[in-house]
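Box 3.1. Reading complex inputs
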Amino acid sequence: MNSMQSASHVSMYYYPLLFLGVMAFIMLALGIKVSNKNVFAGITFGSVLVSMALILLNPYDGVQVGSLVFNTFTIFFVVILIISVLYVTFPMIRGIKTKPEIFYSTLIFVLIGMIIATLSYNLIIIFVAFEAVSIGTYVISAYGKEKRHLEASTKYFFTGTIGTAFTVFGLSFFYTATGTFTLTTEVVSSSPAMLVALLFLVIGFGFKLAIFPMHQWAIDAYDGTENGVSAFLSTGTKLLAFMILLKVLLVGFVSDFHDVYILFVILSIFSMTYANLAALSQNNLKRLLAYSSVAQAGYLILVIALVGSAGIGNVAYVAVTAGMFYSLVYIFMKGGSFLAMNLVKKQSVEVSDMSGLAKKSPATAISFAILLMGLAGIPFTGGFTAKYYLFLSLIEGNLWWLAVIAILNSAISVFYYFRVIMFMFWKDPVEDGNFNLNVYSKIPVIVSAVIMVALFFFFYLLPTFATYAPGLFATMGGSI
Amino acid sequence: MYMLAIFLALIVLSFVAFFMGKYAGAFSKISSATIMVLTVAYAILIFPSRSASGLTPINSYAFAPGIGIYFSIGVNGLTISLLVLASIVSLVSILIADKKEYKATFYGLMLLTESGLFGILLSRDFLFFYIFWEVVLIPMYFIIGRYGGQRKDTVSLKFFVYTHIGSVFILLSILTLFSFYYGYSGSTVFTLQMATLLNPAFINNSAYLPVFWKGFMLFGFMLGFLVKLPSFPLHSWLPDSYTTSPYPATVMLAGGLSVMGGYGLFGILLPISTTIPVAVLWVLIALGIISLLYFAFTAMFQMNIKRMMAYASASAMGFVVIAFSAGILDSSLSIRNIELSGGIFQIVAHGIIMALVFSTLYFISERTGKENIYQMGGIHREMPWLSSFLLGGLLASLGLPGLAGFIGEFSIIAGVFQTVGWLIFLLILGMIITASYHIWTAQRALYGPYNETLGKISDASRKEIAILASVTIVIFVLGVYPNLIFGIISAYVGGII
C-alpha cells in the first residue's frame, strides 16, 4: 500500500458514472416523446464521450477510493471498454425497430457496470457489477426484429445464469479459504479450498469469455443476435471478462500460481485448437467469426498462463502489456468484422454471400480483407504486432512450446480467413442487390481497417503500455 | 541512404500506381525502369568503392527502441547482386504485362511485390525482414487469385498457406534467437539486428542457447527457406502456382521469389554456417541431389510447357542447395569460395533465364493459344524471332557455355567434386537429363512439321523483340564476363568464410 494514496475529494471520481446514469434516465424520459433512433444514438455517443473525457481528466495516478483503484492500468481498460461501446452505437441503429431509448439506456447501464467492475478490487463489487452487465446484455441481445434474436438471448441467458451460479460458488470458497473479499491487500492462503475457488471462478467467468469448453453458447448467441450486438458481446463483455480474470486470478491467487498456469495452458490450447479446427469447416460466416472469436480468446488467456508460470516480475509485466495491446487491437478487428456482416442484407450470412463484394465496393472489400488479415496475424496490421508481441512474451517466459502451438494455430487460421477473402475478390456476385452498401454499413468497416493498419505503425505504444502494466499488481505493494 | 531513397520511392510509387487508372500500365513501367536503372547504377558505380569485403555501413532508424526494434537498412555483396536481379526481373515482368484486363490494381500489386523483395534484401533487422517476407506473399496471392488461370482460387490459397507456414517457422527461429540473446547479453540487450544475432560464438555456446533450441532455430530457418526455394519434398505449391498464375506473375515467381529462399540460405545461414551440424549438411546435399534429379525427371514427362519449365526451375535450384551445403563442408578456402559464389551466381542466372523463358512463352502462348508441347509443333516457321529467343532461353537454362547458366553450374560442379566425391556422377546425370529434355522440348515445340491448325500467326513486335533481346544480352554478358557480379559475390563470400 506504500504507493497508494487515498483521495480527499472522493466524490469527483464518481462524477463520470453519475453523469452516465443521469443521461440514461434522461433518455428513458425522452423516449416518451421522441422515437427517432438517430437522436438516441447521438445522445449515447455524446454522453459516453463526455464521460470518457471526465474519467481521463481525473487525477488517476494510483488513487484508491474504497476498493476502487484508479491507476493507468485500470483506466486503460475503462477506456477500452468505452471504445467498445462507442464503436457499436451507430451501427446498432440498423437492428432496432422500436423503443430505441430502452436499448440505448440499457447500453449505458451496461457500460456503468463495466466501468465499476474494471475499477474495483473487491470481489463482491466485481460480482455485482458483472451481473449488472450480464443482465443488460441479456436484454440487448434480445433486441431485434426477429424471433431468433429472442432464441439467442434465451440461450445466452440460461448459460449466463449457470455461469453466475459457478461464480458465486467460487466466491464463497474463496472467502472460506482467505476470509476476505478484497484484493487490495495481498491474499495469502494455500488452503485446498482455493483450488475449488479457482476452478469455479474460471468456469464462471470463462462462460463470459467464451473459452473452450464454455464456449458453446457463444456460437449460437453471436449467430442469433443482431450484428451490432454480436460485435459488442464479442468485444466489450469478452474483454471485461478477460480484465476481471486478470485481476481476480493474478492478484487473488498469487500463492496458487502453479495451478493457474496448468489450468490456463490446458484451456488456451483447447480453445485455440478446437475453435480453429471447427472454423475450418464453417460455411456460415457469422459462425466462422464466432469460432474465430473463441480462438482469439484462447490467444488472450495465454497471458494468464504466462503470468502463472513466470510469477510476478518483469516477464509478467511484458505479458500483461501484450494482453493490453491485444485487447486494443481486438476491439477493432473482431468488432469490425462482425459489423461487416451488416454489408449483406440477409440475416444469416454464408461465406458465399460475400461473393463479388470487391466488384461492388472495392474499398469495403479491401477493408474487410485487412480486418481478416489482422485476425490471421499478417504483417502491416495491428493484429500482427499484437500476436508478435504475445508470442515474444511467451518465449521470454520460457513457454516455448506454447508459443509454437499458438503460432501453428495462427497458421491454420489463415485457411479460413483467406477463404472469405477469396470469395470477396474472385467470385462473381450471386445475385444483384444482395449487398447493403449504405454509409452505416460501410463506415465502421473502413474506419476499423484504417485503425488496424495505423496500430501496426503505432507499436511504439507498447513501451507506454509497459509502464501501465505493473498497475495490475498495484494493490499488492507493486509499483503503479 | 541511396538505397533507402530508392526503396522508399518504390513503395510510394507502388501505392500511387493503384490510383493511376488507365495510365497505371505506363506509369508502373516507367517507375520500374527508373528503379532498375538506379539500382544497377548503384551496383556498378557506387557500390564497389564502398569496401573491399563488400559490406556497406548499416543505417539504423529507431522505430521502437524500447523493445529493440530498429529499421535498419544495409547492402552487402550478396544483396546487391540479388537486388539487381530483382529489379531486372520485376521490370521484365511489368513490361510484358499489357493485357487489357490488367487494371491499375495489377500493376500496383506487381510493384508492391517488388517493394517487398527490396525490403527483404535491404533489411538488416529481423523483424522487418520477416514483415517484408510476408508482404511479398499477399500481392502474389491476390494476383494469382484474381488474374490466374484454371483453379485459381484453390491454387492461390494453397500458395499462400503453404508459404505462410514456412514463414511462420522463420518467425519462430527469429524469436528463439532474440530471446536467448537476451540472456547471452547479460539480460541487457533486446535486439533484432541481424548483425548481432547471427553470431556463431553465441549460437554455439550451449550455456546460452541450449542444443535443442539451437536445432529448432536451424530447423525453422531451413524449413522456411527450403519451402521458398523450393526443395524436395516441400515443392508441391510450386508447379501449381507457376502454372496457374498469369505469365507476368510467373516471371515474378520464378525470377523474383525464388531469390528469397536463396537469400535465406546465403544471407542468413551462411554467416552462422559453423553452427550447422555436418549431418544436417549431408541431408541438405541429399535433398539437393534428389531435387535436381526428381524434378528433372518430372519435367521430362510434362505435356504443358509452362509446367515443365516450373519443374526445370525447381531442378536448377537444387544446385543452389548443393552448392550451399557442400561449400560449407569443404575444407579448402579457395574451393569453398568458388562453390559458394557459384551457388549465388546460380540464383542470379536462374532468375534472369527464367524471366527470358517465361516472357517468351507468354508471347508465344498469347499468339498460338497453346501451352501443350506437342500442339505447339514447328512454330519456328511462323515466328522465327520468338522461337529463337525461346531456344536461347532453353539453352541458357540447360547450362550452355557462354551463357549465364553455365557459370553457376560449372563452378558448383568444379567445387563440389572435392566434397561429395563419386556422388558427382548424380549431378552430372542430372545435367544430362536436363540437357536432354530441354533439347527434346525445343525440337518438339519449335521445329519439326508445322501444326497447320494454328493457321497464320504473327511474329513478335518490335517492342517485344527489344525486351527479349535486352534480357538475352544480359544473359550473354553474364555468360562471357561473369566477373561483373562474380567479383562482388566472391568478395562477399570471402568476407564471410
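In summary: The interface with chain A takes residues 63-64, 66-67, 69, 127, 130-132, 134-135, 138, 141-142, 145-146, 152-153, 156-157, 160-161, 164-165, 168, 171-172, 175-176, 178-179, 182, 213 of chain B (CB under 8 Å).
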